[in-house]
Write a structure and sequence with these properties.
CATH architecture of one domain: 3-Layer(aba) Sandwich
Radius of gyration: 21 Å
Number of strands: 11
Strand order of the largest sheet: 4-7-10-1-11
Helix content: 40-55%
CATH superfamily of one domain: P-loop containing nucleotide triphosphate hydrolases
CATH class of one domain: Alpha Beta
């Protein structure tokens, strides 16, 4: 799947400007204008990239997994898959008139305005938000700031919500996440750890819930992520340009059909999309009842010990991701198959560098998994 080029520039970790030139900006703007309002590419029509699709579905079933990092070649469908998943997800209930889309049930916490309202809270149906965080975004744009218009016209100190507020209960998507400014990385780390956005500036002092699935994509050849941010992603998947000729032909054929008539292409895949949507809903309902036996936890721990991962986040994420996959499969308990399928996404980005082992992270995980699960 091809990806639309971005329209915002930014800086590399070393401070080098990476903004687009005028011609590229114009081309990108025309492409975005042409696709505005167009139906998203169907998630079920994506060819290949099985690991990426499974990781995104697991995060949709259990947002507590901690987000998904997608690294790989340009033009391999990373952005397409994220936006396709958002269009696939069933709508959610939100408090009527709430700027943060608070859950009427109170799950995940309520903002100050919703807590002050009398129960039961009126609700409405909204689409799951998917918010893009541009590389060139300012701190005020991300966390929110004083509403200048109301301050000047009415003399009121009012809060203008930022991107974190819009992403609450949805997805925050960062393309080229490895090029994100350090001060924005620090902000995301704080919010991801607490689930709240705290704003203390310009005479404002407030906090609001900000729980979202963080999805990042990028090309590792353009720079590495800070270890603190890398560790915050629950799952990390690798995507590669397909080497299989029939698969490449099918990718181009489907994308061409979509570009020619998005509505007709979407209709052709509507039944598959509805089936997968029902599967996600069923998995969410089944998730709390999935049994996690001691044997499964021991397998996960043995695998992490064999790989030498730091801390316990690796096995906790692996077990949680395996439980989401078991729910998607309709199984009642976690088995070795679920653990093996999620071992690489849950652990490859948590490995220490081993100068005596030149194997890539994925190979090291697969090799360790083969030994652990053969026992």
């Amino acid at each position: 799947m091809t990806e639309a080029p971005g329209v915002t520039g930014g800086r590399t970790p070393g401070g080098k400007e990476i903004g687009l030139n005028g011609a590229r900006r114009g081309a990108a703007a025309r492409e975005i204008a042409a696709t505005a309002g167009r139906a998203a590419y169907p998630f079920t029509a994506i060819v290949g990239q099985d690991e990426m699709r499974l990781a995104l579905l697991a995060a949709a079933v259990d947002p507590g997994i901690g987000g998904v990092l997608v690294l790989g070649d340009r033009g391999t469908g990373k952005s397409t898959a994220v936006r396709a998943l958002a269009a696939l997800l069933p709508p959610m209930r939100a408090v009527e008139g709430c700027r943060y889309n608070c859950d009427p049930s109170g799950a995940g916490g309520l903002c100050d305005d919703c807590r002050a309202r009398a129960a039961p809270l009126p609700s409405r149906t909204v689409q799951v938000p998917v918010v893009d965080l541009p590389l060139g975004a300012t701190e005020d744009r991300v966390v929110g700031a004083l509403d200048i218009e109301r301050a000047l016209t009415r003399g009121e100190k009012a809060f203008e919500p930022g991107l974190l507020a819009r992403a609450h209960r949805g997805f925050l998507y960062i393309d080229e996440v490895n090029l994100l400014e350090d001060h924005l990385v620090d902000l995301l780390l704080d919010v991801a750890a607490s689930g709240e956005n705290v704003v203390e500036r310009e005479g404002l002092s407030l906090r609001h819930p900000a729980r979202f699935v963080l999805v990042g994509s990028g090309n590792p050849e353009e720079g590495e992520l800070r270890p603190q941010l890398l560790d915050r992603f629950g799952l990390a998947v690798e995507v590669r340009t397909p080497n299989d000729l029939p698969q490449r032909v099918e990718v181009v054929r489907r994308r061409d059909a979509y570009e020619r008539n998005p509505a007709a292409f979407g209709s052709a895949w509507a039944r598959e999309e509805a089936r997968l949507r029902r599967q996600i809903l069923a998995a969410r309902e089944l998730l709390p009842d999935i049994e996690v036996g001691d044997a499964a936890i021991e397998r996960a721990a043995r695998l992490c010990m064999a790989l030498g991962t730091d801390g316990l986040r690796g096995e906790m994420t692996l077990v949680r991701a395996a439980r989401a996959v078991a729910a998607l499969d309709g199984d009642s308990e976690i088995g070795d198959d679920h653990l093996r399928r999620m071992a690489a996404p849950a652990l490859r980005h948590r490995l220490r560098r081993n100068p005596l082992d030149e194997a890539v992270a994925t190979t090291r995980v697969e090799r360790a998994a083969a030994e652990v699960f053969a026992a």
